[in-house]
Amino acid sequence: MELISPIDAVFLLAESREHPMHVGSLQLFEAPEDAGPEYARMTYEKLLADNEFHPTFRKQPAKWLGTPQLAWTQAENVELAYHLRRSALPSPGGFDQLLALASDLHSTLLDRYRPLWEIHVVEGLSDSRFALYSKMHHALIDGVTAQRLLQRTLTNDPAATDTRVPWNLPRSQRAPKPSGSLFGGIARNLLSAANSGPAALRVARAALLQQQLTMPFEAPRSMFNVPIGGARRCAVRSWPLERVKQVKKATGTTVNDVVLAMSAGALRGYLIEQNALPDKPLIAMVPISLRADEDAGDTSGVKVGAILCNLGTDIADPIERLRVVSESMRRSKEVYNSLSPIQTMALSGLMLSPLALTFLPGMLSLANPPFNIVISNVPGPKEPQYWNGARLDATYPMSIPFDGQAVNITLTTNGDNLDFGLVGCRRSVPRLHSLLDHLENSLTDLEQAAV
């Protein structure tokens, strides 16, 4: 029996029917040219034959001292046919039907009496593609690590036919370390910082106030910052990375700045459409790696920040909005880069600490939200990827909305594309799919204004 870390236990304790606490991913594949109509079925059967499991995929909550949120146990027998499922879309097999299925799957709780993961092979798409929907509990694995795990099943060799499965991957040369996901990595930083004493927190807070940066609770109330229900709606779309890079070059900003400004314009358009745009700018929480490109191979030290970014949603001009976003991110990064690793932990913890209040009954109605939305950009492969000879067309991350944060925007790089995954509370966020059109309109406005 293994004790569950305090941070991981939070995700089990906070979970309810209204608050599923798993992260997901929807991957779309194009079968090889010589594949027959039974390719998806044969792929499923090939996966079903691999009955070896990494210990992570055997973990399930065990009762210790009377509660199932304090310890893990290793399941002796894992029923793979339960965790790996095969589904088929009804005719005509449109993309909207796939998203409806993914939304339903993302809304349902994982079974606490089994290891906390599921993978669904989905066939029946009218364009002959097939999909994999995966979900894993955040107590088991964080969102960034889950994405990296799925990436390790892929190869850049289209001729490779060995089918790697996430539950039985060969050991990597370097043991994985906690990543910069929204809660897993940053919250662990907070726990470590608490052990270092209050001095580091005071230094980090002083750095913030000196720079007059965005602090928690400066965000306005919005229609996104409300209690949520358990049903989810997912919306996904891909954009060419080159379009974003062209805006970046023309404006002297970064790819992440442009993505945030693109999202800010979309949120502004959506809220205007709903007659719900606050007078003050929305504030986004942006998990971000602070590791320089030349340090990419160095895993020592803490290089993850929880940045609060002014989205400039009160500004109509797209270039001025991008300038506000870029300046907000630049100043925050400068503060982080001036801190020691312990101070970086403390500052990330300071930014996220108000989230704990959202778990207390009635707190949502007593104060402004610590921030309005989470926008996360997860690194992905830069080259085309393949799995069992099938080309990966898209990989859409699906994260966790929670009380006070009714919608989440997460995106990842996939070769020449940026794949966006939006997840919202079905009750609180009407017509979530319209945000996709607003994202396109926002990017077009930036392109035209940057000329």
Report on the architecture of this protein.
The chain has 12 helices and 15 strands. The chain is α+β, with helices and mostly antiparallel strands and 451 residues long. Strand 5, helix 4 and strand 6 form a beta-alpha-beta unit. Helix 6 (184-195) packs across helix 11 and helix 8 (241-251) runs parallel beside helix 12.
Descriptive terms for the model:
alpha+beta, 15 strands, single chain, 451 residues, six-stranded mixed beta sheet, 33% helix
The helical percent reads 25-40%
Strand order of the largest sheet: 5-6-7-2-13-12
N to C succession of SSEs? EHEHEEHEHEEHHHEHHEEHHEEEEEH
The end-to-end span amounts to 61 Å
Structure class: alpha+beta
Number of strands: 15
How is the biggest beta sheet arranged?
6 strands, mixed
Query: Can you tell me the overall shape?
Result: globular
- The low-confidence parts are 173-197, 292-302
Give a summary of the structure in a few sentences.
With 451 residues, the chain is an alpha+beta fold. 33% of the residues lie in helices and 23% in strands.
List the SSEs and their pairings.
Layout: E1 2-3, H1 6-13, E2 22-30, H2 39-48, E3 59-64, E4 67-74, H3 80-83, E5 84-88, H4 95-107, E6 117-123, E7 130-137, H5 143-151, H6 184-195, H7 198-211, E8 232-240, H8 241-251, H9 255-273, E9 283-289, E10 304-310, H10 318-337, H11 341-352, E11 373-378, E12 386-387, E13 390-398, E14 407-414, E15 417-425, H12 434-450
Parallel strand pairs: 5-6, 9-11, 11-14
Antiparallel strand pairs: 1-4, 2-7, 2-13, 3-4, 6-7, 8-15, 9-10, 12-13, 14-15
Helix pairs in contact: 6-11, 7-11, 8-9, 8-12, 9-10, 9-12
